[in-house]
Amino acid sequence: MFRYIERVPAATDPRYASSLAHGLALLDAFADAPAGLSNKQLAERTGLSKASISRLSTQLLARGLLLFDAGTRRYRLGSSALTLGYPLLASLGVRRLARLPMGQLAEELGGAVSLAMRNHRHMVYVETCRWHQPSAFKPDVGAALPLLASAVGRAWLASAAPAERAEALAALRAHAPAQLAAWAPALAQASRDLAQHGLCFSPGHFQRDVHAVAVPLDVRLGGERLVLNCGLPARRLAPGELAERVAPRLLALARHIEQEWRAESASAVPPTAAWPPPPAPAPARRRAADDPANAAAQTLARGLDLLACFQPGDEVLGNAQLARRLGLSPQTVVRLTYTLVQLGLLRRDPLGGSGYRLGAGTVAIAYPMLAGLRLRALARPGMLALSQKIGGAVSLGLRHQAGMVYVQTAWRTDGRLLPPDTGAVMPMLATAMGRAWLCGARPAERRAALNEIAVRDPAAARRHAGVVERAMAQFARHGHCSSRDFRPEIEAVAVPFAQPVDAIRFVLNCGVLAPQPLPARKVLALGSALTELVHELEAALAT
After folding, report:
1. Are 230 and 212 in contact (CB under 8 A)?
2. Of the ranges 33-42, 302-311, 335-344, 446-455, which one carries the lowest mean pLDDT score?
3. b/e string for 69-97 if b means 16 or more Cβ within 10 A?
4. Cβ contact 224:118 at 8 Å
5. Read out DSSP for 341-397?
6. In sequence order, which ranges of 406-457 are alpha helices (DSSP H)?
7. Which is nearest to 107 in space by CA: 144, 128, 132?
8. Per-residue pLDDT tens digits for 333-352
9. pLDDT value at 225 more than 50
10. Of 137, 150, 159, 500, whose CA is between 20 and 30 Å from 279?
């Protein structure tokens, strides 16, 4: 089983906050448990007492990182797990340039093409495009692959600077010396392959039925190097095809991405995204004094609030800035940041500053939830086809506290335009997606959501007074909701699914650039196309 949060031995450094690590270990326990875990199962997986789990889970529940099903008495990951790593994903501008050609290559080769960055002993996918045909090989954003066995990890190691490579190998040696020794010949071969061919291979070494090749990119974002990877089912490859056909295509794609990135970086005015996601509203934070008088729970709460300080645009924050935002002492913040660095959720600014950036571990936390949403995989082919047909973005979302969060977006036109991304949070009342969710919800669900909006964002509730009634009237007439309130240059239309899927109520949304309001017939056409796709997916789910 993968560890999505890096584990470290019991630390003797006084800066290490064990209670914060214990609380985050609860999230790590869901790595292969899409159906959820009981209190007893969490205790077995983490080694913590049931009493400790109850205290720590209270903080995770309050922040939406866990949900509790009273019927099954099980916990599962909540939507806040998706939003935690969104600021990191939003800062990786090369994803915007790479997404379209990556998707094209994935379909041409019949595999998956991914971008990854290092997180301690793993490589974490920050972008993945895969062939839409059913396959057991289904990588996704947040998937964590081992450095030693994977092509993407070997490419990172083989291309690292000597000091960087020595640091990584030392960590691997301390964690699993026998494993490092066993893979030493493969690492030596990877270095030769990189020197001779410019890429590295893993023919079934990580997953026996998947052969992979990887290319390190000459692109640094926030001081971090990215690696481009392609994996294909072994059964679809002829002998020698990985090196003779796949590798040259991946290498050409890497050079294309590098060229595009250099051109954009040299531009005086970088291209503007079609609809850049707005900063997610900061979660409501409680001061430690308001929490139960329990040191472990308070430390976990403070660590979670520290991670929530990072919003899109806040690439680097120092201890002093974090202390001011949280109202905590510098000494407390030092303990929190030190621990989060050890766990891979923060990283020290590699550009030489004294601040911190979000680590790839924040993206990896969401992987079990994303991988467990079966509707995402089922919907993707139809979403891609509809995106190409309408010339816009098609997104799948679900409720997140007082808003909506995107769990998947399909975009098949201009690769330089950035639609809302996985983990992006949008307001409920101003967006077509949020309004459609309210229209599709049961009355009790709708009342609960509106009450939460009134508490969390009373200004928005006043600003959009009457919008729910108008949205419900539109939904009753046409079966969809539309809005230009969130982005006036975008016509957005959304349709809710009639019933929850695996206990989650989803909405399908599309957005097209339209400086002027679209004619009513075109809005109706968008709504009809969305409704048709929703009905197709509902029928597929029923089989």
Report:
1. yes
2. 33-42
3. eeeeebbbbbbbbbbbbbbbbbbbbbbbb
4. yes
5. HHHTSEEE-TTS-S-EEE-THHHHTTHHHHHH-HHHHHHHHHHHHHHHHHTSEEEEE
6. 432-440, 443-456
7. 132
8. 999 999 999 999 999 987 66
9. yes
10. 500
Query: What number of residues does the chain have?
Result: 543
Lookup: tokens for 208: 């026996």
Q: What is the pLDDT of residues 361-404, one digit of tens each?
A: 999 999 988 888 889 989 988 998 999 899 899 999 999 989 99
pTM listed for this prediction: 0.86
The tokens describing 152, both together, are 């993407």
Residue 361 one-letter amino acid: G
CB-based burial of residue 229 (10 Å sphere; 0-12 exposed, 13-18 middle, 19+ buried)?
A: buried
Tell me the residue type at 191.
S
Q: Which residue do the tokens 């023919």 mark?
A: 203
Q: What is the pLDDT of residue 7?
A: 59
Contact indicator for 245, 235 with CB cutoff of 8 Å = no
Q: In 3D, which of 535, 518, 538, 516 has the Cα closest to residue 526?
A: 518
Q: How far apart are CA 370 and CA 373, in angstroms?
A: 5
How many other CB atoms are there within 10 angstroms of residue 304's CB atom? 22
